[in-house]
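Re: Re: ligand-bound prediction request (bumping)

Still looking for help on this. To restate: I need the protein modeled with adenosine-5'-diphosphate bound, output as structure tokens. Inputs repeated here so nobody has to scroll up.
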Amino acid sequence: MPGSDRKTAPVAALDIGDQPFVQVEKVSKKFGSLMAVSGVSFGVHEGKICGLVGSDGAGKTTLLRMIATMIRPTAGNIFVGGLNVITQKAKVKEVIGYMPQRFGLYQDLTVAENLDFFMDIYGLSGAERTRRRDYYLGFSNLLPFLNRKAGDLSGGMKQKLGLACVLVHQPNLLILDEPTNGVDPVSRQEFWDILAEMKQKGMTILVSTAYLDEGEKCDQLILMHNAQLLTIATPHEIQANLPDLEEAMIRRIQAVDNALAEDNFGS
Ligand SMILES: Nc1ncnc2c1ncn2[C@@H]1O[C@H](COP(=O)(O)OP(=O)(O)O)[C@@H](O)[C@H]1O
Ligand SMILES: [Mg+2]
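Reply:
Sorry for the wait, this slipped through. Here it is.
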């Protein structure tokens, strides 16, 4: 079968030359009169991890949901692997794995049953189904817990199961919204080890996080504030000569807020 090789390849290649794999062009999203995302543009190249950081309400989730085809931008364009997320939504869904902020595992189903549910959706069967189950549950250290109900897993294990569920169809782009929120440090490390392994396979990863130590593991960081993109740079560039990334982020956000306050005062 001609398609079978592509199916078993870790990540199927899409020919987009040296274009960024994710391209966000002047994207805005309004909810009524509220501007949740305003004129945001950036690109993420294939095989890179791009971190999205910023204050609460900055627009991170809204931006990720637009890239994941869940909501439409009010203005602007988004391309994933050269595909337009609005006009080619179905095709885009095939190449992405999206784990929302509150990922819906079936709490009353076991680990194995939750994964089965997703493998059914993607029509996986036979030896390939078994291979992927063993692989994705194996590196999540979930194989000993196949018969445990998802509702009885620890926070970190739940998130790893969620990740396994969005990985079984082997997406080119992984979109994760604060996947390690509230997870203990050891499980967070394990979660990031899995992301590093996926990156090795050529997967592109877009991940929002409130933990700045995770920001350091990204190839590029986007700092959002008040619906806008403040900075896009490597963690090293953003930290510059400050003691840590957290301090650097806070200073940038405060500088913008202070400038805004002076503007308002002056007028
Ligand atoms: N469906 C929605 N309807 C109305 N307002 C929304 C909706 N989703 C998000 N918002 C608002 O948009 C802004 C950005 O929210 P969000 O994208 O969730 O930010 P973040 O993920 O950075 O915390 C917030 O002011 C939020 O209240
Ligand atoms: Mg959010």
